[in-house]
Amino acid sequence: MTKLAVWISACRLRTLPLSISGAIVGSGIAYSRDFFDGDIFAFTILTTLSFQILSNLANDYGDGVKGTDNEHRIGPERALQSGNISPKQMRKAIILNVIVCLLLVVSLIYTAFGAEQFLTSMVFVILGVLAIVAAIKYTVGASAYGYKALGDVMVFLFFGWLSVLGTYFLYSKQIDFLMLLPASSIGLLSAGVLNLNNMRDIESDKLSNKHTLAGYLGSKIAKSYHQLLVLVSMILIVIYSFLLANSSMYFVFISFVPLFLHLNVIRKIKTPIGYDPQLKVLALSTVALALLFCASLL
Questions:
Q1: Nearest 5°: phi and psi at 148?
Q2: Mind listing the pLDDT tens digit for each residue in 27-73?
Q3: Are 237 and 283 in contact (CB under 8 A)?
Q4: What is the mean pLDDT of residues 79-103?
Q5: CA pair distance 43, 109, nearest whole angstrom
Q6: 138 class by beta-carbon count within 10 Å (0-12 exposed, 13-18 middle, 19+ buried)
Q7: According to the model, what pLDDT value does residue 60 have?
Q8: Does residue 178 carry a pLDDT above 80?
Q9: Model-level pTM?
């Protein structure tokens, strides 16, 4: 494997579509209400992708130096774990990515608010910095929240509420609390992807002293928790569709088909390795829901 291929692998491209699902939903609602702006959309997508890549690199580094990524772990071999990238090289890549994130955040905020709305811009700068810190602190450092069973909550908040509501506000300069329904739906599905990852790694995480919600719940209850996440996310979309009183919104229900099929597969899984293929399935199903949601609005 070439050095470029190693770095591309470290970025975990399969996680990137899921990361922009919230931005797609927020942008779709903005478009349906005549608030859409192409430049804001471009910078939003680029900023979101940079956050996700930063999170992936930091996760590789944090788990790598802690020894969590070891021979007992199921799933793709990580960059530090393989020895193809050194901790020093990964630290430099993380620092470079932080700089890219900050530049994109500033560009996005300036595009959305200009120089006139200084206080609003400062709020979003703070949110951007918090997103960067959250991306790094998931596994890096002694106080990494991913090792304290807080990953699910943080994913729900950042990939759901902040992503959807924040994206919509960038366009409209307004807050619509009804959007908490689709925002929560995307957040729950994103937490579901993390839960699948944690159910897959439940045994190796115990050996590495990594405490996840799945680890605390145990395999059986964690599976029920996963089913609840997906089912509630669909219920929230149904409620939003009925409240919107727009018959075309029911088109989004097509996206429930792969989610129900996913739940049926999860129900039958007996070994941790069986969860690994379902990470991609749920991630792509979430993106499909976001796209069909937008198509329904339009």
A1: -125, 25
A2: 999 999 999 999 999 999 999 999 999 999 998 888 878 776 666 66
A3: no
A4: 89
A5: 9
A6: buried
A7: 85
A8: yes
A9: 0.93
